[in-house]
Write a structure and sequence with these properties.
Blueprint (H helix, E strand, L loop, with lengths): L1 E3 L25 E2 L11 E3 L5 E7 L7 E5 L12 E8 L9 E10 L3 H21 L6 H4 L17 E8 L4 E6 L6 E6 L3 E6 L1 H8 L12 E2 L5 E4 L6 E4 L7 E4 L5 E6 L5 E3 L10 E6 L6 E6 L3 E6 L8 E4 L5 E6 L6 E6 L4 E5 L10 E3 L6 E6 L6 E6 L4 E5 L6 H7 L15 E5 L5 E6 L7 E5 L2 E7 L3
Parallel strand pairs: 8-12
Antiparallel strand pairs: 1-2, 1-3, 4-32, 5-6, 6-7, 7-8, 9-10, 10-11, 11-13, 14-15, 15-16, 16-17, 18-19, 19-20, 20-21, 22-23, 23-24, 24-25, 26-27, 27-28, 28-29, 30-31, 31-32
Length: about 475
Amino acid sequence: MRKKGSAKKGKAPARPPKPEPMEDAPQKPAVWLPGDELEEGETLQYDPSVYDCLSTLTLDWPSLSFDLLRDHLGAPRAAFPHTLFMVAGTQASSVKQNYLAVMKVSNLALSKAAAARQKAAAAAAQQQQQKEGDGSDSDEDMLEGSDGESDEEGEEETAQLHIRKVAHTGGINRVRACPQQPHIVASWADTAQVQVWDLSAQLNELKDEAAPVAGSQGKVHKVNARHVHTHSSEGYAVDWSPVAAGRLASGDCRSRIHVWEPTPAGKWAVSSAYRGHEASVEDLQWSPTEETVFASASVDKTVRIWDTRENSKAMLSVKAHVADVNVISWNRATTYMLASGGDDGVLRVWDLRNLADNSFVANFAYHRGPVTSVEWCPHESSMLATTSSDNQLAVWDLALERDPEEEAALAPETNALAPDNLPPQLLFVHGGQTDMKEMHWHPQITGMMVSTAADGINIFKPYNV
């Protein structure tokens, strides 16, 4: 975001004297960060041209957690319009009003601003080719669309929400879908229960639905959970193994971790508790390559690495932050890299080949509130994103380094002045949501992200990701 106000007038300099006072030139806009005060007359401006796609949706109740579902539409895909499938859990005002929302979002179209930007870039490239070759197209032809039609602006296409609601007892703290079987979904409730659901019927209906069905928004279906396990307290940590299909881990606020093994009968055998943490287990992540290894993050400020063949103690432990460790993410492409985010607002990256206190390989103290989610990009191994209670979603690229000369050459006169302490690895910032809770990269649509907050869900693709 940037802030803009009316041009300010300064005092005329004492020397050299001027015959008549002159107004100062308008100041460049400054970078605004959440927490900065706005002066009188200043307003925040949203620039739609930095998004290829941006849509919003809301449920009846806030959603703390959701997951994007792998689908049948192919990967990787980039051509607009897009369709995606997701599941989200609600936090209603009463226990019995909660539900799992199984959704298809269709007709996610390229924005008009992005289409104009792409068209201008294509025209510039064609003009450059003409200069270098013997092309005969006129300037007028180059400014027309590829189908020969003139560039007349029409109405912005609107994404469509298709939804099925499944009744759920208790507020839903976290939702995760099995990567090998996306219709199998685990939910962590504030009733201290972890439940596994088969949502294949709802997903099959949505796949074949050309347009949203009237009345589907209000109807809540009753479905029996396939398996229910009760912890000694509620929790937030749950993750499916990407290696061993159907293997699940869940952790609670009393520091216990349980591992679930699928059985031939379609149920799960739940292990006795893994003990070692001294406070609430906030997040869990299975190794992307080793089927018996997983990582945990805790309020006790540590990140630990476990092996399912030994549940009495962790294999490795590191004091990761000076405050609660809220979230972790295991890099699926560079499998020795782990990212963590804490209540201290800090994002850290760890090399598991050399895991020790203060051994982090990257440290970004950027956010002004607790980090509420972190996730590596599935299509670019050096890229990851974070959300924070400071109402920001930040995209990071660890491969970026600051080049002052290049920045000066590319910066237009009207561009905002970036503070010197702004990390060069900060690639993009998404705002406009209040109390951000979670984000995910789409596993099949390159660059597409979804974030949830107290005031709704955003689906977007930045132009530079």
